[in-house]
Design a protein that fits this description.
Layout: H1 2-14, E1 17-26, E2 33-37, E3 43-48, E4 64-69, E5 77-83, E6 97-100, E7 106-110, E8 113-117, H2 155-163, E9 168-170, E10 177-179
Antiparallel strand pairs: 1-2, 1-4, 2-3, 4-5, 6-7, 7-8, 9-10
Length: 187
């Protein structure tokens, strides 16, 4: 009798944790559920996924999952961790942090500063009445377009218009209309 109970307990302990591969994700509800293939014979559907507050993701198929089973019961599991070596950012120094996806987009908190990589896609800031940059220097390697929904012109195009403008004025002695020369200061 005692041996039988110990064997049952040992089986439950062995079944408490499993590693498998994600085959399907349902991200349509308040709790994400995942289908995980644990081995050739075990495919477990609709396992709730526990994620850190404020962080969310939809892991692609093939992602590794660690599943915990309450009391070793394969019908009562939770996905407690996911990892995908194919897309993992590498080379981070001790203490550095990054969030990333499978498209090459990332926010990297490096020891030398924060690096935002759009992965070739636009970066959009929404629902903010103001963006404040407290910096000594703001650099941009491309054009800057202000009032983009109205003029659509870049600051370089506005500078070209400004640099070629002239002013008409009437000389105080006489009635001649004269035109100034274009500005000579180009910077």
């Amino acid at each position: 009798m005692m041996i039988e109970q110990l064997n049952r307990l040992a089986r439950r302990v062995l079944l408490a944790l499993a590693r498998g591969t994600i085959t399907l994700v349902d991200d349509s509800k308040s709790v994400q559920t995942i289908q995980v293939r644990l081995n050739a014979l075990e495919l477990i559907p609709d396992i709730p996924r526990i994620a850190e507050y404020g962080l969310t993701s939809n892991p692609p198929p093939g992602t590794l999952a660690v599943v915990g089973f309450k009391n070793g019961d394969r019908n009562d599991g939770l996905v407690i961790a996911t990892s995908n070596a194919k897309y993992r950012m590498t080379g981070l120094a001790s203490g550095e942090v990054a969030i990333h996806d499978d498209k090459g987009q990332s926010v990297y908190l490096s020891a030398s500063g924060i690096v935002v990589n759009g992965g070739g896609n636009p970066i959009t800031l929404t629902n903010t009445p103001k963006i404040r940059a407290e910096t000594q220097l703001l650099e941009c390697t491309g054009d800057i377009v202000d009032n983009c929904d109205t003029t659509g012109r870049s600051m370089a195009a506005d500078r070209q218009i400004y640099d070629s403008h002239t002013h008409k004025f009437v000389a105080q002695s006489g009635s001649s209309n004269l035109v100034t020369q274009s500005p000579t200061q180009q910077e």
